Structures are given as C-alpha cells and as structure tokens.
C-alpha cells in the first residue's frame, strides 16, 4: 500500500515520527509520505526509524492562499530541503501562524470563552507547527468543547467568525518553489467540500500551467462524484492521480491506508523529481 499524505507531532498529528513509522509497518504500508504542515522537522526521526519493508517519501503540506482568498494545500514531495527559497517560504509560513493564533484567541476571549495563548501552547507538542488543531485541543482541555471534530464543525471552521487567515504563498508560488527544489507538487483534497473549498476546473488549469504534477483524488473528504470529476480532470491534463489517508493519529478519524495511490501512478510521480530521493532502510 502507498500512502503519501500523513502528519506527525511536528505539525498537528498525535503520533511522533517514530510512532508513525511503526504504525505504517503494522498496517502493511510499503511507501509512506510524511507531510507535516509547512515543516520538515520530522524527516530525520522518521528516516532513522525505518525498517525493511517500508520506504519513506519526505515532504511537506504547504499552506497556500489563492489571490481570491481560497485556502489551498499543496503537497511537496521529494524536494531538497536545503534549497533556500523553499526553506524560507516554509519558515515564513510557520512564523505567520503565531500572530494569527493570537487573533483567534482574542476573538474567542472577547466572545466570553476562557482561553489563552498559554493554553494553546500547553496543547502544542514541542517543535510542532502551530495550528487550529492545537487551539481545538486547548478548547477541549478547558471544557469548552468535547473534541477536535466539534471544534472544526463549529467555532474553528473556515466560515466561522473566529477564523483568521494567515500569511501564505499562492499555490502558483508554492508549486514553483517545490519544483525549483527538485520536488513534485500534488494538490491535496482539491474538492474537499467539507472544508469549504471552492476551487473550479479553471483554477486547476492555472495550477497545471504553473507546473502542478498531480491531484489527490481519493481522500476521505471527496464524494464519489468529486472523485470521478477529478479523475477526468487529471486525465485531461496528464496529471498523476494519488490517494492518501491524510492521517493525523487520534486527532482525526482518518485511518492509515484508508485511501492509497496506485503503484504505477506513484512510479510516474517519482520519475518527475530531479533525483531519486525515496529513503529506504
């Protein structure tokens, strides 16, 4: 099984990189992508935890915003993390999350909810990329909400009065920097209507022109109709079709390997990268 989209405690997952490797081995996964939000911090621990039977695809899920303000997540895989422009983009995106979180906490506090930045930091694993899931965990710890799912269905969803955007590159900028660093760019959950995304086929065509390599078609947040439409678009533009779990440990219901990528599609995608960077034990 090939699962190219997972998260660890280095962003908003609940498994350490080592624990993720162990979980993937127990699930029978043969190729695993580690794609923490705007971060490569888990790469070394995951690489050092490998055992025979599992190959590791190093990457990151880059948070992007279109010119019209639509949130887009771009999976960068197999890139050289020493490439300075991409590293700077990821660092700036991580740094922008702190003032954004302060604003969200301020809005919630003004609405009468007893929550502080200290609560959020207490719910954030050391070194993790700060994000809404950590605010959700802080709200749960305070007894304001019961679960992360409840938070994202209500107070913290994209259309909530408490939601605040953070500084982010455009998808085109992210694609350019991923490709310049020798990697491949795959748009994550492009039609995830559950997340309030509003991308159109014309938007995807622009991303193809910018150098997009693939579309994550098989994902929990895509309906059957959305998957069929995305497969059609992928065929029209010659894009690689991927499927992934978007696993977050106990932070989400997603199970490792619940959606996977076909081996032939993975071979196509890997061949586009400037070097063979898959890590093996």
In short:
It holds the Pfam family PHP. This protein has two domains: 205 residues, TIM Barrel; 60 residues, DNA polymerase, domain 1, CATH 1.10.150.650.
Tell me the name of the CATH homologous superfamily of the largest domain: Metal-dependent hydrolases
The third-level CATH topology of the largest domain is TIM Barrel
Instruction: Provide the gyration radius in Å.
Output: 18 Å
Q: In percent terms, what proportion of residues is strand? A: 5-15%
Helix tally equals 10
SSE string, helices as H and strands as E: EHEHEEHHHHHEHEHEHE
What does the model show?
The chain has 281 residues and is an alpha/beta fold. It folds into 2 domains: 2-91 and 166-280, Metal-dependent hydrolases (TIM Barrel); 94-153, DNA polymerase, domain 1. 39% of the residues lie in helices and 15% in strands. It contains 10 helices and 8 strands. It has helices spanning 17-27, 43-48, 84-110, 117-122, 132-141, 148-153, 171-180, 201-210, 224-237, 263-272, and strands at 2-3, 31-37, 55-65, 71-77, 184-187, 214-218, 240-243, 279-280. Strands 1, 2, 3, 4, 5, 6, 7 and 8 form an 8-stranded mixed sheet that branches. It is globular, with a radius of gyration of 18 Å.
């Amino acid at each position: 099984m090939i699962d190219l989209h997972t998260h660890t405690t280095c962003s908003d997952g609940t498994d350490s990189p080592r624990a993720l490797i162990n979980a993937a081995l127990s699930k029978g996964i043969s190729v695993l992508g580690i794609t923490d939000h705007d971060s490569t911090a888990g790469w070394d621990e995951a690489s050092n935890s490998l055992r025979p039977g599992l190959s590791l695809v190093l990457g990151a899920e880059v948070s992007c915003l279109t010119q019209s303000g639509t949130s887009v997540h771009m999976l960068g895989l197999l890139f050289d993390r020493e490439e300075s422009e991409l590293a700077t983009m990821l660092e700036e995106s991580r740094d922008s999350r702190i003032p954004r979180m302060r604003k969200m906490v301020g809005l919630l506090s003004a609405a009468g909810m007893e929550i502080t930045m200290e609560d959020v930091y207490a719910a954030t694993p050391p070194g993790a990329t700060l994000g809404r899931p950590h605010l959700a965990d802080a709200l749960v710890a305070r007894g304001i909400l019961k679960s992360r799912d409840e938070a994202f269905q209500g107070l913290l969803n994209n259309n909530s009065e408490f939601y605040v955007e953070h500084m982010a590159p455009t998808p085109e900028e992210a694609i350019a920097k991923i490709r310049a660093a020798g990697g491949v760019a795959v748009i994550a959950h492009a039609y995830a209507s559950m997340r309030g995304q509003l991308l159109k086929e014309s938007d995807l065509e622009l991303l193809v022109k910018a150098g997009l390599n693939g579309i994550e078609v098989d994902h929990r947040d895509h309906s059957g109709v959305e998957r069929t439409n995305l497969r059609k678009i992928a065929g029209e533009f010659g894009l690689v079709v991927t499927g992934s779990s978007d696993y977050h440990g106990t932070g989400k219901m997603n199970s490792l390997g619940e959606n996977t990528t076909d081996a032939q599609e993975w071979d196509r995608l890997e061949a586009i990268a400037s070097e063979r960077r898959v890590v093996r034990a």
